[in-house]
Amino acid sequence: MELTIKENIVLEEKVYSAVLDGGPAVYVLPREGYNKKYAIFSTHFGSIDNTFRAAGDGEEKMTLPDGVAHFLEHKLFDDEEGNIFDRFAAYGASPNAFTSFTHTTYLFSCTDFFLENFRLLLDFVQTPYFTEESVAKEQGIIQQEIRMYEDNPEWRVFFNLLKALYEKHPVRNDIAGTVESISRITKDILYQCYNTFYHPRNMALFVIGNVSPQEIVNEVAESISRRTFPPFSEMNRIYPKEKAAVNEKKIVEKLAVSQPVFNLGFKDTYTYMEGQQLLFRELITELLLEMIFGRSEKLYTRLYEEGLIDEHFFSEYTAELSYGYTLLGGRTKDPERLHEELLAGIRGIKKEGLKRDSFERHKRKLRGEFLRSFNSLEFIANNYLAYRFRKIDFFEVIDVLEKIRLEDLQKRLDEHLIEDLHAISIVYPFQ
Amino acid sequence: MISLESKTLSKKINIHLLPTRKFKTVLVSVFLHQTLEKDLASQTALLPAVLERGTREYPSFRDLKIKLEELYGAELRADVLKKGERHILSFSLEVINDKFAPGENLLQQGLSMLKNLIGDPFLENGVFKREYVQQEKEQLVKEIQGLINDKVNYALESCVQEMCSGERFGVFKYGSIEDLEPISPESLYSYYRELLRNNPIDVFVVGEIEPDKTFALVQDIFDFPRDAGRGDLPPVEVYRIPKEVRFKEEFLPVTQGKLTLGYRINTSYRDDDYVDMLLYNGILGGFPHSKLFQNVREKASLAYYAFSRLEKHKGIQLIGSGIEAENYERALEIIQEQVEELKKGNITHEEMEYTKRGLISQYSIIGDSPYSLVSFFLDGLISQRETDVEYFIGRIQDIKEADVIEASRKVCLDTIYFLCPEDRKGGIQ
What we know:
The structure holds 2 protein chains of 2 kinds. Chain A folds into 2 domains: 4-237, Cytochrome Bc1 Complex, Chain A, domain 1, CATH 3.30.830.10; 250-429, CATH 3.30.830.10. Chain A is 42% helix and 21% strand. Chain A is built from 15 helices and 17 strands. In chain A, the strands form 4 sheets. In chain A, strands 1-2-3-11-4-10-9 form a 7-stranded mixed sheet, with helices on both faces. In chain A, strands 13-17-14-16-15 form a 5-stranded mixed sheet. A 3-stranded antiparallel sheet of chain A has the order 6-5-12, with no helix packed on it. The longest helix of chain A has 19 residues, at 132-150. Chain A is globular, with a radius of gyration of 23 Å. In chain A, 46% of the residues are buried. Chain B is an alpha+beta fold. In chain B, the strands form 3 sheets. In chain B, strands 1-2-8-3-5-4 form a 6-stranded mixed sheet, sandwiched between helices. Chain B has 2 domains: 5-219, Cytochrome Bc1 Complex, Chain A, domain 1 (2-Layer Sandwich); 246-424, 2-Layer Sandwich (Cytochrome Bc1 Complex, Chain A, domain 1), CATH 3.30.830. Classes of the chains: A alpha+beta, B alpha+beta.
């Protein structure tokens, strides 16, 4: 099997890759001198993929109860003998998994017995074993996971904001679903989703650590060759048509918190983008947010000194294939005033224009932070695949960042941060 | 493994270098040790926040941030740590390697900012600026009150505060609102001068560095007056057999109950059998293969999380789990059964081996992160057990089942704390 090598001179990193015939894309980043080895196996199937036409033409459109992708993630850890935690434990590995809006990732980290652990990862992700009993048992566990999040104010305020921004897009639904929706999940639904979305062509692997790329690719090839798969058809994910306007202006809830928790979101005007174009949009928006709300900007200092925000205040942009939004948030003593101040801050920037020195400085900062995060093996692996599902080469962040001009941000400011397209969400304390 | 090169300056300042080419950054951490004490805690906790507001050269937070962004987003932070009964001021600087920013001298410039942050704060009339102190007091009050927002941690901290109410360890990391109240710019500044003058200081530098040059650069940070007068900080109190188990329940408008059990393990990090206790904790609740995860979650489906963890310096073990309030008794019973199983020696060969391998993996990867390296060596300094990772790995390999059972005999239940949904009031005893 021929390996492709891609080197990034700035990052001083080399990625080896191979796309196996009918199989998943495999990426390996060797890091000598590290004891930790980290491997992830991801499928492009997340909580938003809840309506689709299953493999094969003419299949009927099916809509899933909320929380199936996450439920499936939990159940894949089972096999006929119980759960596979013990088998990883036998090799000193630490396995885990997570489900996001857009993908599901299985992983382990270890220091010894890498190949044994890697085979185990390949095996358990490719061997579904669901029974009615084990599905029922998992409902109790996931119910408690949902309850835990129900008591988490940051989580609640965020999902309420998404519900305010989106009328129909499934990003508005909790990733784990609700206690009610998971009670409707059956083993048949799990198998159906598994067969549709866990096709090797919809999946990818990333391995990082002191490992041999060739050995890894051989293992994957061997594992794929032992199995048969139906011919792959790009599954037909169906997202409802989402209106441009926000769904609701404001959603309010009460929880046991010390002071109000606040989120403000701008819904992006939707145009399908992928690859470098999408990466460019992501980076210019992040830079723009830094230039308005960053810690070195006057607005931050003023709001902080007035006690309207604290050091937990944040701003971020999410750029996905089927949606995008800007999110601002934090704890505040006065959400109504903070709301006004943030909008006034944006109006002020629009009037004054963006400043070149601030632009250059924030660009430098993003570059340095990107390099700094390359100390973390998990950061590299997780992002590499998350970006790949959006057809972005993660290592291009550095080059694309350099191409950004101040005019790009000015344009983005006018087209994205539009008052009519924002919504807020507040969690108030009980009186 | 990366080895430590240490040097002690005449003024009770220890500098530890960890030269390695593994990382893309250089990390410099300065630790100023203080004892954890109710009367001091609020002042100690307030200091990093006030210091971060400005220095003589960079008088505002914004000036500092602008300079740091110019240094390619260098991280410069002041923070407070609670480790056992030590309350440690931590100052850290992380810059990307100079080779990534040709023509710059990031480490040198960063170190000069670190020096500013520690030794040259922004002053007004010879003390901390009044507004800075006032604003940070208000922010710290909110931080103390805000603990309740994170229910998982709130339940663990509440259990600790109940269990150690008469001990120094029971003092919250951020102090208390009542002790914060009387702090003035004058009192806080003179407290800080005292600390800088007298208390032990440890410095770590991890990354691609030239040792001799770095020693010189780091020494330059400490050009303020130091006394060698004051002795060592008091040791942590560890050993205690509770007379009876304490119960506390608290009602809040939440949906999930949080059950927390606090145990005295009567073993501290500096004790020889600490490693046996590590294994005990690992078998009980440190991993997915552990008794708690397997029995509370996988078999009984009562919880999403069920774990045990050690506070290594204080010698406390906490067990935490999020459950339906109506399952309180069942969950408590299953948890206590698991502890009993260990005491009875019902440990399988697999549990022993898997836990050993899991722990060895954890120790083996310490060298893969600059922050975990620093944290590991700092733990060693605090407990005067300066050893390396290989020592722990060797010891873990040699542990026998009998050692774990022996360790389990020292474990005593002290406190059961239950955070209960309000609508279940009266439902549990």
